[in-house]
Structure prediction request, 497 residues.
Amino acid sequence: MTRPTGSLLLAIDQGTSATKAVLIDAHAQIVDRGSAPLERTYPQPGWVEQSAEDIWTSLRTAVAACLDGREPADVAGIGLSTQRESLLLWERANHRPLGPMISWQDQRTAADCARLRETGADELVRTVSGLPLDPMFSALKARWLLDRYDPDRVRGRHGELCLGTVDSWLLTRLGGDHVIEVGNAARTQLLDVRRRTWDPRLLDLFGVPAEVLPTVLPSQGPFGQARGLAPLPDGVPIAAVMGDSHAALFAHAGWRRGQVKATYGTGSSVMGVVEPSVAVPEGLTLTIGWDANGAAYALEGNIRSSGATLSWLASCIETTPEALAETAADTSSGLHLVPAFSGLGAPWWDDEAVGLLTGLTFATRVPHIARAALESIAFQVEDVVAAVERDAGPVQTLLADGGPTSNRVLMQLQADTSGRVVERATARDLSALGVAHLAGLTLGMWDWKELEGLDRDRQVFRPAQDEATRTRRIAAWHDAVSRSRFRPARPVKVASA
Prediction:
């Protein structure tokens, strides 16, 4: 690709609760922003859906807001970062979505997961895809959508339907072919994670015709040129695509071995780059962080509810997450909130776990519950970091990013809970920044050496709690998690006389 004439990059971060757009200058600094909120719907308990058309509209709205007052011709290229395991089905000819987009948070396929585990399919799925059988991933969402909109798979096999993750959908709407970036493909549970190709055994297991799936591309494409993204002129190249958590790791210079980052958002992703030969450990996943002249593999643990926990509690008492965090007490007074609203993710992977509050007394007040909500985030992150450490070696420093990290209490709590130094990225929108870094690399605006040398400002939080207290707190948390995962005995039917 020839060196661009424009001086700016447009990075789009399509997330669960909002789509953000940022402009990055030739020094890899953010110079402007725009955003558009997104809604989720909950049609049944455990179901979480979004509108594909709303996502497309939010992207266009965020871009227009970001470029307001700017010269669109200055944009040299586009980077796209997206939420990952969410899945949708659409008609190839007219891009009309069939049904909702099923969110990564959705749990409607939990019973299907349980049935497949009983058949022993979990070993094949984990070995080939690097992922455990869990409703979070895309494969059973694919089967659910196809069962309802193409039950005999005739339209799918004839090439009339497209199945894809959010990046695939947006690339299609931007005027491209039916393609998917390899890191996002690695989250579908249909990809052979080491061969980086769709696996026939997994397609057969989940009932997905190969004809509905997109072509897998490296993170630098080629993805073609964007159209219909006013006020940008048609023809601006899409230079990089990444999953949001992967992009955040890239922004941290996550290609350096031995680093582990935690992205705090609606849920949380804890991720660190490893050798591709690593065995897939219990409780974690093996994924492809990015493919830029070679695939970078990573161990990851996914937490389903972190920032979402604060949002839920805030809505219950009719306040904002920020105000809620400000009211948190200095201690939870023995209270624990286990946010298993849709089961527990890593390292437990228990979709039957239930959300609960333990330790309630007559002295419990809202500030104690707010503190327990904050602590639940720190405890969950540390559980995953500890699992990464067991399989990938010591982790002295945790790199942190995402909206909730602006809360200093949470970051100090994370350091105290983990017993590790926490370095919080001071730059906002790290997912957008990371995919912009890769897009600039693709376009020749900078090289690897220049990326390596970027100044990445961080605020440091050091543990201030003694080891005995930390150990006692974690043990009490694990006791609460055990209660969340308890399976009560089924009632025994008593025969009538």
Notes: The first helix runs from residue 52 to 67.
